[in-house]
């Protein structure tokens, strides 16, 4: 088997997927039979600079190069060969945000990530103008808010893109986006699979926009669909990716995608009525639609699959960060008493304790808001635990509270979709670090959404692997299959997975928790007003 993999690596019968997530950049190399053969990663965190959540450009490239080198070293140590040739490459990253460049390719302002809730006026105005929900984190909201703020850099804008689009551009020279990532930049016309021209015209006609010499369509990235080529790795790009200089140019570049798109691919959830959930620093659920949504909902994003099919998306800014902070506190306590636990042991013990909790978490409440939360209209975050003198304050209830809290905004958004629009997935396929402890987070999520939850064996590593699959699809689809058929017939012909059903007692308990959670939002709101950062 090792010799077979080695031969594929030498021949370049491989694909590389790189995903720039909120807390980790990961590079995954797969062979043309979809098997992961090596990976490398780099941990990073966003920084709050002048009240803007950002990542420095230098750290973007340090992270990419570090994760690539770690992956390449793994290839050498496992298979005894140098990695010099890759068949195809795909870049994915956190969706949305704002990266504007001038004619010389200079970044005009520090990267503004999806996590910023600083575009409320623009998002509201554009939603009314388009009769289409524009969330605060969308790129067009950031651009329009900069216009409304009369920021000096706007006059020099020549090109705007997302993080994935930026990295792809530097590696290939192509200013393009996959349609899934593009659907978080500006609304898509589902029939034509391009930006909605009527909305572009409405935007350009705004008095505040007409003062600029650029036209919106000229500054947006071009759109590509899954399976199409989006250029090739240039010599400069190869050097940028592999600073050792060993990597050859010429790899086919897949259209760069957002982490939502790679999540759909890695969970095989691109067909109608399929749904997927990604739970990490942020969380989002996606349902591929088989019917139109009747009205505009500010908590429901309308985006697309990597093939351009319409998707209803519920996106929350907060999920696992507060859990991670509490687990680290328990880790520090363990070390104080001379016990050194591996992360899986620590998370496993704490998560498993929640299975002994009361269904409603004993009257405890937690607001896991490290940043503002769009679903509950919080402009900033103040992580907070609240209890009454009558709450049953013990470890199982405490951990159950934090699991409920991690999924609470996601549940509130999905309740709108299911109760008001009668849109619901037959099953959600979930991925993310919260599901590494078997069945615990999976059961909580099933109870929260009152829907079966399936977790595949790649639940903790899905995004960059999904991007590598899209890279393989872009390089070789000789059978001219649709993306859904390609995934069904070739990639997921025999998937390893587990499914849990909602527990009626858990559903009832979670609903009780959520009702108390909603009532307590006034406390969180007051904390934002009263406690300065």
TrEMBL record:
Domain Carbohydrate kinase FGGY N-terminal: 15-240
The keyword Transferase belongs to this UniProt entry's keyword annotation: yes
InterPro entries xrefs: ATPase_NBD (IPR043129), FGGY_C (IPR018485), FGGY_Carb_Kinase (IPR050406), FGGY_N (IPR018484)
Domain of life of the source: Bacteria
Carbohydrate kinase FGGY C-terminal domain ranges (all copies): 276-474
Pfam annotation, one family: FGGY_C
Keyword Transferase among record annotations: yes
Entry keyword set: Kinase, Transferase
Signal peptide span: none
GO molecular function, one term: kinase activity
One of the GO BP terms on file: carbohydrate metabolic process
Residue stretches in coiled coil: none
Homology family: Belongs to the FGGY kinase family.
Protein name as it appears in the record: L-ribulokinase
Organism for this UniProt entry: Secundilactobacillus mixtipabuli
The organism's taxonomic lineage, starting at the top: Bacteria, Bacillati, Bacillota, Bacilli, Lactobacillales
């Amino acid at each position: 088997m090792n010799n077979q993999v080695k031969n594929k690596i030498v021949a370049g019968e491989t694909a590389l997927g790189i995903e720039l997530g909120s807390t980790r950049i990961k590079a995954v190399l797969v062979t043309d039979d979809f098997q992961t053969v090596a990976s490398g990663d780099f941990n990073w965190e966003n920084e709050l600079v002048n009240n803007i959540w950002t990542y420095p450009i230098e750290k973007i490239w340090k992270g990419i190069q570090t994760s690539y080198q770690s992956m390449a070293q793994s290839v050498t140590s496992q298979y005894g060969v140098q990695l010099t040739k890759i068949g195809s490459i795909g870049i994915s990253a956190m969706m949305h945000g704002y990266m504007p460049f001038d004619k010389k390719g200079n970044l005009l302002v520090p990267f503004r990530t999806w996590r910023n809730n600083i575009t409320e006026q623009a998002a509201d105005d554009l939603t009314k103008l388009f009769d289409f929900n524009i969330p605060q984190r969308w790129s067009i909201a950031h651009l329009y808010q900069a216009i409304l703020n009369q920021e000096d850099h706007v006059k020099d804008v020549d090109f705007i893109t997302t993080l994935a689009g930026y990295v792809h551009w530097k590696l290939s020279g192509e200013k393009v986006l996959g349609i899934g990532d593009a659907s978080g930049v500006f609304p898509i016309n589902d029939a034509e699979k391009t930006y909605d021209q009527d909305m572009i015209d409405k935007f350009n006609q705004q008095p505040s926009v007409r003062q600029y010499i650029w036209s919106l369509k000229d500054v947006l990235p071009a759109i590509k669909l899954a399976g199409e080529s989006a250029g090739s790795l240039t010599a400069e790009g190869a050097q940028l990716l592999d600073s050792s200089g060993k990597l050859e140019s010429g790899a086919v570049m897949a259209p760069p995608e957002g982490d939502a798109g790679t999540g759909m691919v890695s969970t095989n959830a691109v067909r109608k009525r399929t749904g997927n959930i990604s739970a990490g620093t942020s969380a989002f659920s996606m349902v591929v639609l088989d019917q139109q949504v009747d009205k505009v909902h500010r908590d429901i994003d309308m985006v697309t699959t990597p093939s351009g099919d319409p998707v209803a998306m519920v996106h929350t800014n907060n999920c696992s960060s507060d859990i991670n902070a509490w687990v680290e506190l328990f880790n520090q306590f363990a070390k104080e008493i001379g016990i050194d636990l591996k992360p899986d042991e620590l998370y496993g013990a704490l998560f498993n304790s929640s299975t002994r909790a009361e269904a409603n978490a004993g009257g405890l409440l937690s607001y896991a808001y490290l940043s503002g939360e769009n679903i509950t209209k919080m402009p900033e975050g103040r992580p907070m635990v609240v209890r009454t003198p009558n709450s049953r304050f013990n470890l199982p209830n405490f951990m159950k509270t934090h699991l409920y809290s991690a999924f609470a905004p996601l549940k509130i958004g999905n309740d709108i979709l299911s109760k008001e629009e009668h849109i619901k997935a037959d099953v959600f396929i979930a991925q993310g670090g919260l599901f590494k402890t078997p069945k615990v987070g999976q059961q909580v999520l099933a109870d929260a959404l009152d829907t079966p939850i399936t977790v595949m064996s790649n639940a903790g590593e899905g995004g960059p692997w999904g991007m590598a699959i899209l890279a393989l699809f872009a390089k070789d689809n000789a059978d001219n299959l649709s993306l859904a058929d390609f995934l069904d017939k070739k990639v997921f012909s025999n998937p390893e997975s587990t499914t849990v059903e909602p527990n009626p007692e858990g559903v009832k308990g979670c609903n009780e928790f959520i009702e108390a959670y909603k009532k307590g939002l006034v406390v969180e709101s007051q904390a934002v007003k009263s406690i300065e950062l």
